[in-house]
Amino acid sequence: MRLTVPTKFAQPQSPPLLFASLFQRSTRVPNWLSRRPIVTANRMAWGSEKCDEKTVEHSTAGLVRPATADYAGEAIQAVKTGKVIAVPTDTLYGFACDACSMEAVHRIYEIKGRKHTSPLAICVGDVQDIQRYATTHHLPLGLLDSLLPGPVTVVLRRGDSSILEKSLNPGLDSIGVRVPDSDFIRLIARGSQSALALTSANLSGQSSSVDVKDFENLWQHCACIYNGGVLPSGRAGSTVVDLTRPGEFKILRPGSAKEETIAILERYALVEEKCLS
User: Fold this and answer.
1) How far is residue 156 from each of residues 119, 130, 229, 249, measured CA to CA in Å?
2) Is the peptide bond before 6 cis (omega within 30 degrees of 0)?
3) Do the Cβ atoms of 168 and 100 come closer than 8 Å?
4) How many helices (DSSP H) and strands (DSSP E) are in the chain?
5) What is the pLDDT of residues 227-242, one digit of tens each?
């Protein structure tokens, strides 16, 4: 999970610029979208479960378990009780917690050694859930379904109807939203009945994690660590795109799917912001 890259260099900094500071640049692009159909669009106005001891690796605090459906109930219960867990996504390993639990959110900042001025993205289980947390009525019909699930973070305005806690990323009227192409974290998001705050599982400023052993020094701070093996996407993270302005887009971080993302956006007649006069 995580939100980095610039949009406008005006003072004070705009919300998309703050989101931009969360990501590292990369131009590596996977073939994730080759499995998904492109939708032609019309324009529109944006339980805890016990585990088998043989499958559990003990750490100094939490437990390392397989990232399978058998352990989703346990992960959901941990999130609901305000704990931080570590989970694989379709790009990197991330720390996740209930986005509406400010105690848990603060815990993530402490674990990462991250400044509280750096905003967090959220993860939801399904594309249709995004409208509960952000404004989508200005986006072309079908756009989000074409981009997601996948390695893309869409930055949208919260709007007055957002059910997100105001104390999450205070002072910002936008939010980065993910629907990873990863069954396990989507099961957790659905079961928690809330959005998950999501950020990369690493100390702030250090390399992102594609294996649970990459952040073994931080296991002790998590209730559970869910092992999905070595992730194949490299360390680029998701492609971050600002969709806050009708008819326009701005790539805030190239990430792992820049070309595919731009191709979809252009199919829906969105114009890259830097090209506008």
Assistant:
1) 13, 9, 32, 11
2) no
3) yes
4) 6, 12
5) 999 998 788 899 999 9
